Amino acid sequence: YAEGANEQLSGLILLAAYSTADLSGTDLNVLSIYGSEDGVLNIESVKENRSLLPDNHKEIIIEGGNHAQFGNYGEQAGDGDATVSTEEQQKLTVEAITDLLAE
Length: 103
Prior knowledge:
Elements lengths: L1 H4 L5 E5 L13 E7 L7 H7 L8 E5 L23 H17 L1
Parallel strand pairs: 1-2, 2-3
């Protein structure tokens, strides 16, 4: 969606996700957040697709965070064991999003 609507958007937030569309030539403020213990997100795909993001994108890796703790939907098959609480992971996520929105 962001690829076709980047004129209407000012930013994109990726929570344990990555873009497969080329956004590198856009003015979007892109924030990518994922946990260091995420066993669901394909980290190799995150790395391979970084070049599709604008040069000024921000990436935050929450130490000890996993995939499931971005929401409240329980454990996910193949996910890593979080070493940080759900509350802490979500707090750090909200802070990063709030900082982006303030820009």
